[in-house]
Amino acid sequence: MNKKSKLSFSLLLDDYRDSHIIKKIAERIDQSIAGIDRKIRIMEVCGGHTHIIAKYGLEQILPETIEFIHGPGCPVCIMPKERIDHAYIMSLEKDVILVSLGDMMRVPGSYGSLFDARAKGADIRFVYSPLDTLDIAKENPDKRIVFFAIGFETTTPMTAALIERQIKESLKNILYHINHVTVPEPMEVVVSEDDSNIDAFIAPSHVSVITGAKIYQPIVNKYKIPIVVSGFEPVDVMESVRMIVQQFADNRAELEIEYKRGVTTEGNIKAQKMIDKYFEKDDFFRWRGVGDIPQSSYRLRSEYSYLNAELIFDLPDNSIDDHKLCMCGDILKGKAKPFDCKAFGKTCTPGKPLGACMVSDEGSCAAYYRYGRFNKI
Amino acid sequence: MCLAIPSKVIEIDHEMNSITVDTMGAARSASLDLLPEPVEIGDYVILHVGFAIRKVDEKSAIEVIDYYNEILADEQEE
Ligand code: SF4
Question: First CA to last CA across chain A, in angstroms?
Fold first, then answer.
């Protein structure tokens, strides 16, 4: 059959999930790895990839010498408790409607989750698109709407687009609590540590659609480490692993794009301009479990500080430690696996998460719990 | 948080700068506020939290599919 005709769902999906293709790529990996006599530890930065690897059991299909290390790319998992507390506090203020994306719901802060705040009477709405906030604001002119903005470079331009529309429509009642973090800085933190055991990166799909692959080039240059930007389907991840192994076989350390149907070197310039218009880099962001990382997040530009909820509400600025048992920090840095945590599957489950890595589907602990995979030792 | 499945443009609303897309049978709307390139009905786009963020590059998508088909053809010959 000639598939050259036209793109279709089945072409864009079935082929990228085809178990025969996955097997074939695995064979090619076996061939190119034959001459390489060392372990290759690949960090998949994005929680979406962690989920795919767990769901399809990809580590089991790969040679023993390939190990996945699960990176910090889960926006909910890296949110420090004190900022979840901010959301909790603001949601219980008078005449406030707190709006966020669904993933935030169950993350435990020190007072509880937003779910708990809602049980106490807070008006919290979860939206599919940030732009849905406009309707909420119009329907509730006497309320203050606080948009609790989360996510990497992938969702930052959407918050900017919301601000742009709000200003255009002269809506006065939307405020912002910004928690937009960036990908390259934590990658550099994990790879630069003295005991770093990361040999290569699989870089995120959607972040890279926005930023372009160019943001990873400095890391490749400085640390001589292969980085492949991968798509989301299991075949994409397998092919990205093959490209990394091939780099080791050829003694190369380069930036490559596997996800060519979505990612270019330059990225989405329009979205990048939107980010620049409303945001600037903040001095540092406290990553849950990892600590302070300089220049790793965005804040509103000072022209827009009248929209900044952090300046309007009285919010504590203390850092709050995680549960003593929780090893999310080490897991996010690739130094531990969920099985190493004593609470895993016992006192910590997706229904009652103790730490953030168990909350989101994209968190490593939740992925391990859900799929019970990764049992290769 | 990331929806990986590409969606097909089935309607364009110029006034709202938005589109209706079909994601494997489910219709939803998406904003064009962040999309740099123009879209036409029948194009595939990548969505993220209610926004189209990129038109699927048809040429490279088909190239990759052809490459996978070659891999599979290898299998059948063996
Ligand atoms: S299992 Fe729970 S407590 Fe343990 S590291 Fe994971 S999230 Fe933290």
Answer: 42
Which residue would you say has higher pLDDT here, B60 or A231?
Answer: A231
Q: Which residue ranges form the domains of chain A, and what is each CATH number? A: 3-74+184-257 (3.40.50.11750), 81-181+266-312 (3.40.50.11740), 328-370 (no CATH)
- Amino acid B76: pLDDT: 55
Cα three-residue angle A272-B47-B67, rounded to 5 degrees: 100
Mutate to test the pocket of ligand 1, among A331, A347, A358 (most ligand atoms within 8 A of CB): A358
Task: Write down how long chain A is.
Answer: 377
ipTM for the assembly = 0.88
CA angle at A212 for the pair A210 and A213, rounded to the nearest 5°:
140
Domain B5-77 has CATH 3.40.50.1820: no
Q: List CB contacts (< 8 A) between A268 and chain B.
A: 34-36, 53-54
B13 touches chain A (CB under 8 A): no
DSSP states of A328-350 as a string?
A: HHHHHTTS--GGG-TTBTTTBBT
Rounded distance between C-alpha atoms, residue B49 and residue B34, angstroms: 12
Residue matched to tokens 């929780």: A326
State the Cα–Cα distance between residues A368 and A209, nearest whole angstrom. 27
Residue A104, number of CB atoms within 10 A of its CB: 23
- Give A281-309 pLDDT, tens digit per residue: 999 999 887 889 999 999 999 999 999 99
pLDDT tens digits, A47-68: 889 888 988 889 889 999 999 9
